[in-house]
Each structure stands twice: as structure tokens, then as C-alpha cells.
Amino acid sequence: MGSALATSGGVYRLGEPEFQEGCSTAACGAAGLLSSQAVLAATVTVTFLAVIALTFLHSAREECDEEQSRVAAELSALERFERRVGGLSAGSGQSGPGGAGGATLVRADAADAPPKLRAVRRAYEETVMAVPHYEEDYGEPLETHMRAEFGDEVAAAVTGGSALTPPVKQALLQRAAASREERTSFLRTLSTEGDSLAAATDDLAAIDRRVDRIENQRRLQQSFPELTETWEELGELEDECRETLERRQEQVQRGGSGADWRDDGHSLCAYLYGPLPVDYPALADGALLLDRIRTTRRRVADALTRRV
Predict the structure, then answer these.
(1) Within this chain, do residues 164 and 199 fall inside the same structural domain, yes or no?
(2) Local structure of residue 147 (DSSP, 8 states)
(3) Considering the entire predicted model, what is its pTM?
(4) Are 138 and 125 in contact (CB under 8 A)?
(5) Would the CA dihedral through 270, 273, 275, 276 be positive or negative?
(6) DSSP secondary structure letter of residue 308
(7) pLDDT tens figures, 151-198
(8) Based on the structure, what is the number of domains in the chain?
(9) 233 pLDDT exceeds 70?
(10) What is the C-alpha to C-alpha distance for residues 166 and 13, in angstroms, rounded to an integer?
(11) Distance of alpha carbon 188 from alpha carbon 196, whole angstroms
(12) Do 137 and 174 fall into the same domain?
């Protein structure tokens, strides 16, 4: 909750006539364009993981689904916290010199204030800090987390003040509502990203199945016309694969998979897929599939030349 995205220095590029990749390491200041063979070489350290077709994409969908579950849990927790604070009666108090609409208020009636502030803190602990992934993702004390979510002044009023006054209560509700809206917006972003991953998976899987069928053919038993037809089909599959990669590339570049949450789609990919060996799983799987198609097509071309 409230954590910032890590930015990514890498970008895959699609160029003519080869599929191209920008530098994906932090050491690369400007992304140079590489051929599809270089894409394969750049991913050689992780290709051993791709023993199952579209391994990176399958892992990416799991990461995206998990993030959706966590954000939905945080949204629900914020809603419960807001309801509990809304049900508390605010006492009177004097306002201090702080800002945030007078949220930093001090020295109210000591008999009335502490129980109400304790109730706010307890509500925060039992809702926002009670999500299953809290310790794994945050693992920080209430004041630190509340400062990140609601701002320094509101957190100080709750943890160091002596009254739940109307301005403090109002500021709490406003900040909780803002945090809720951030989660709601991010869930929409994650839904868009999940749909994009699903579409890329379906498209690439369909191509992969057709390549499997072709590779299982016994070329020695095929006639020259049959080999020619296979060679042409592989050309069509190469075009389809490139088109799928281009669609995904454009979506990332224009932020179609998350620009409304943080600055761009590249940052979203770096955030979501940080645990994976690649920041762009759809493009990585697609690059491997594209190289496989081209390798198979060269073998069919070799078989054709032997028939001449």
C-alpha cells in the first residue's frame, strides 16, 4: 500500500525487418536496437526456464492475478476503516498551527480524546494492517504506514494528538477516501493488464500449437508442393507472431496497460514482473516463439533445396 513503482530501463522494440530489443539492464543508458538473434542471445541465461511454452506469460498472469487480490483486499480494508471512523463521535479541541485543514489538533479534553484516538488506531490495525500480505509487503509500524497513506499531519494527529476533533475526523475520512480511489483506479489498470496478457497468451498459444504440428511432420515423406505449403504457412505464422508482439508493444508504450496509475506502462511492467527474469514477459515469450518459427522455416527451406 502506498509503495512507489520502480522504473524500468528496458524496452523491447519491433523494427524492420527483424524483431528488435532495447537494452534491458540498468547499465544501458540508451536502448540500442538488436536483431532477433540478439534477443535470443540476451535471454539465453533465462531460456532454460522456458521449458514449457509461454512460461513467462503464465507466470506474469499469476503475478497480475495475485496483485489484483492484494489490491482488492486493501480496498476492502480501507472501506471498513472508513466506516469505523465514520461511526466515531468527534470531540472538541483547540487547533494547532498545522495545516491539512486543521488536522493537527492538540490538547483537547483528556478524558474524552484518548479513547477515541485509540479507537482510530485499533480500527486501522484491525482493517488496513490486517490484510494477509501486510507483513510481507510492508511490515512497518502503524505510524510509519499511516504517514505513507494519509500524510504526516494526519498520522501525527492520530498517534501524537490528544483528541479526535471534527477536523481530524474529516481529514481521516478524506484521506481514506483518496486511498480508496487510488486502489479502485489501480484495479481497473490491473484488469486492463490482465486482459492484455490473456489476449497475448491466446494468440501466441494458437501460433505455438500450429508450429508444434508443423515440427511433428515427417519432412522426408513430404512432397515438394507440401514443403512449399509448409514454408508459406510458417511465413504466415511469423507475420501473426510479429503482429501480436507489435500490439503488445504498442500497448506498453502508450501506457494502455497502466498509464493512469503511474507514469507509464513500462513502470507498471517493472513493478508487476520484478520477480520474473524479464520485465516484458509477453514480448520475451513472443521473441522466443518468433525465433523458433524462423528456425523451423530455415529447416523447411533446407529440405526444399534438397528436393531441387
Answers:
(1) no
(2) H
(3) 0.74
(4) no
(5) negative
(6) -
(7) 999 999 999 988 899 999 999 999 999 999 999 999 999 999 999 999
(8) 2
(9) yes
(10) 54
(11) 12
(12) yes
